[in-house]
Amino acid sequence: MQTFNPADHMVFCRKYKQNLPKLPNPPFPNDKGRQIQETVSAKAWQEWLELQTMLINENHLSMIDPAAKAFLNEQRDKFLDNADYEKPQGYVPKA
């Protein structure tokens, strides 16, 4: 019988610099997805998804356009690393 270990469900989040609940599954079926699951909290990932939606809508991005995908990948990494990322007009990050 396997015992439940809460630490197995936590990750040191690279955005928030603290231990937080991790994503239950990698967001992508590749090495990048596994790396995100091991370094980004579920909270930070959810915030990224909300920001990504705003960026797609405000910039009228097409997800079949390789340049749009590259832009979002760059913005995702900047957001998760607390670097200066593209913000939609009027965007105020959650406190």
UniProtKB/TrEMBL annotation:
UniProt GO BP: cellular response to oxidative stress
Segments forming a coiled coil: none
Protein task: Could be a mediator in iron transactions between iron acquisition and iron-requiring processes, such as synthesis and/or repair of Fe-S clusters in biosynthetic enzymes.
Transmembrane residue ranges: none
UniProt source species: Moraxella cuniculi DSM 21768
Entry-linked SUPFAM superfamilies: YggX-like (SSF111148)
Cross-referenced PANTHER family: FE(2+)-TRAFFICKING PROTEIN-RELATED
GO molecular function: iron ion binding
UniProt keyword terms in alphabetical order: Iron
Name of the protein in question: Probable Fe(2+)-trafficking protein
Any single GO CC term annotated in Swiss-Prot or TrEMBL for this entry: cytosol
